[in-house]
Amino acid sequence: MSGITVKFWLLVGVFLATLRFQVFAAAVSSNVCTLRPLGAGEDDTDQVLAAIDSCGQYGTTIFEAGEYNITRKMTWNLVSSRVEMHGYLSFQPDIQYWLNANNTYRVVYIQDQASWFVVTGTDFEIDAFNSGGINGNGQPWWDYYTTVPRLDGDGRPLALTLYNVTAGRVTNFRIESPPFWCNAVAESKNVVYDGMVCNATNTNPEFYGQISSRTLMAEGFVLTIGIDTYRSDSVTLINWDVTTGDDCLAIKGNTTNLYVANITCRGGNGVAFGSLGQYVDLPDIVENVFMEDMNMVRLASYIQPNMGSGVYFKSWSATVNGTPPTGGGGGLGYVKNVVVQNVKVDNVTTPISLYQTDGAEAGDAPSKYQFEDLTFSGFTGTAQENTIVSIACSSAAPCPNITFSDIDVAPPSGEAPMYICQNVINESGLPDVGNNYERSGYQFKRAMREREKKSNDGLRKEEKVGRGIDDIRRVGSTAKGHS
Asked: Of 210, 224, 236, 400, whose CB is crowded by the most CB atoms within 10 A?
């Protein structure tokens, strides 16, 4: 397809999208609900739910500036509607109340996560104008978990969950101080997030500059995640600014046709594919992913000492160790047809990484989870260690077709860059730097980092899902065009 033809279809896509929103706006303009906060100490939950009940279908709901105190779980079922949020939904930090499973929803199956706010429905837009969104009042939660063990699935609520959504759009939305993950999208399709700020900044000086153990939440930026995508197709994430202590973005199982662009990650672990293969009876398929224009920013060490990766991939071992949400393994599936390009890294630990030993113990069987057809292009910046690329595929499922181009990341001064490719078939594009280039073919070798001690395995499953990369990029670019 010629460049002119592609541009033509891009213009058609933008026109149709704009027309749809114009028709949509006209359809809902006659049914408008406007809210104002009731004030300090008052409970706004009832008036919020009443407004959504009245105007959430074929109408417009307008939140004026201020904080709306929310004290119990909410579902918004939006149909051909628009929500304008100039203020914040402020979820009150009654920790023991929210930890009671009866007081949250469990619609995100992966790791048994809890949600206090679920949006579902079709053909809607939530626009927060960069001046509204959610206040999760997370500091009391983070302080609480410095002395109480934390485990996945323990009831810490996700701030915003989109579940069973078709043609939904979230625009210029802010999530401040989330107790746990900022966002999750599950069982959904044709969803656009355009403009998202996720800020999980610890303000308790007692915990400045600490990296927490797996049982504490005491980092300068707490163990929160920007978004988890799960069982969803045709999702677009553009114009994000994420400040967390864990994954900036986490691409979970059965995410297909994903477009990601213009993402800034401040602290944490970078962009993750995984973890995958945790559930022995649930295959995880991730296919057709295009990511571009991402920036990984390391913050001052006294604030946040962690900036783990640019992009990394992880799967569980083939041996089942315990049960989810905290244990598991043995799951099958594949990651296929992924392009990551134009990534700037600022003193990250390892810019590009893949390992298949998540949750593994000594003597575990190597993973049968399959990674294939991965392309990395245009990585620039600096690394904290000299290992620029560390691809440690399983000996039971070697990775076919790993392609690199324009990898220009500088190691620490005076050190030679190191590139590791273990159990990779048809790797191309990495510089050959003698002893600092490790190509191990089918033989497993010890990886350089602690998390890559053991090999896992992966299954190749030939299944065609959705469109190709060019189509994903075209759709994503169209979404950017009518932001």
From this structure: 224
